[in-house]
Amino acid sequence: MHVGVLTGGGDCPGLNAVIRAVVRKGVQEYGWSFTGFRDGWRGAVEGDTVPLDVRAVRGILPRGGTVLGSSRTDPFGVPDGARRIGERLAERRTDALIAIGGRGTLAIAARLHAEHGVPCVGVPKTIDNDLSATDWTFGFDTAVGIATQAIDRLHTTADSHRRVLVVEVMGRHTGWIALHAGLAGGANVILVPEQRFDLDQVCAWVASRFEATYAPILVVAEGAGPRDGAVVEGSVGVWLAAAIERRTGKEARTTVLGHVQRGGSPSAFDRWLATRFGLHAVDAVRDGAHGTMVALRGTEVVRVPLAAATARLKTVDPALYAEAGVFFG
After folding, report:
1. Which residues does 13 contact at the CB level (< 8 Å), separation at least 6?
2. pLDDT over 90 for what percent of the chain?
3. Dihedral pair phi/psi, residue 173, rounded to 5°
4. Which among 194, 240, 268, 321 is least buried, having the fewest CB atoms inside 10 angstroms?
5. 128 included as an active-site residue
6. Which residues, including other chains, have CB under 8 Å from residue 196's CB and lie 6 or more apart?
């Protein structure tokens, strides 16, 4: 059997661990051969490939990013993109395609399978942890760890200067990173896209914190916004710090973590999860379970339909967010 592999969407710690596990198991247990498509769906459309064997994946487990490269190319936005993918796979006598990515990459895989019969198996990757069909996605634990370390370091400088420090983390549509890192880092306010915030209440929490002789740390997801509908241009973290300074008279500064959350070596948990996903993706290909995605449920890796995996965004439950409220202010 000959299998194609691609990584699409934003880069993420753990991608190389999946590639390594797929190739190692496929070659060593089943005698398969593998081709990597460069830069996600772009490589699949254009036939830009690289051979993958055991030697090619040696030493990549702890490396961040992806040795195959990535992009946000959508073959359905390219003239005859889906047809061209079918032709590229046929030319290489590819029996199945393992697509590693987030909601966008996997939604494309689901559509290619449903509408064009492309034999796809999906592996869920995103630092946002927003795929509803799996308890965890790899990359999330690493991003939370990086954000938590940053918050830990900022506590001391906040106290030293008696400043408000706003930490903006990734999360355009969901606040999983903000919630987990904020709780782990001892933030005094956590703001997420799922819950519009009241600026007056935020300022009251800030004032309360100073009354207790501590300088507050606020963690805000990039997609969070005010309840009154005020227009936020640019960084919400920068906007929030300026608004707090105007209203409270307290000096406020912003740290935008940005892409640093996606870089560097994956955590031990993400290496473990990514490796297990890769091993189970190979078994799904072996069983002809095309149109499915591997997912973590508890400690068990299961298969779910790709269409179901990408149908709904997994957002922060209001009750879960409410638990953190005891630490606000």
Report:
1. 64, 65, 127, 138, 139, 142, 143, 262, 263, 264, 265, 266, 267, 270
2. 93
3. -115, -20
4. 268
5. yes
6. 224, 225, 226, 227
Q: 135 near 168, Cβ under 8 Å?
A: no
Give every CB contact of residue 105 below 8 A, 6+ residues apart in sequence. 8, 9, 40, 41, 99, 122, 125
Band the pLDDT of 186: cuts 50, 70, 90.
Answer: very high
DSSP 100-138: EESHHHHHHHHHHHHHH---EEEEEB-TT--BTTSS--B
> Quick one: which of 9, 141, 138 has its CA closest to 69?
9
Catalytic residue among 128, 130, 141, 270: 128
Residue 247 identity (one-letter amino acid): R
Locate tokens 């830009």: which residue? 48
| Residue 310 backbone dihedrals phi, psi, to 5 degrees | -110, 5
Question: In angstroms, rounded to a whole number, what is the distance separating the alpha carbons of residues 99 and 294?
Answer: 11
Which residue type does 15 have? L
Please name the amino acid found at residue 78: V
**pTM of the predicted model as reported, rounded to 2 decimal places:** 0.95
Residue type, 54: V
Averaged pLDDT, 248-262: 95
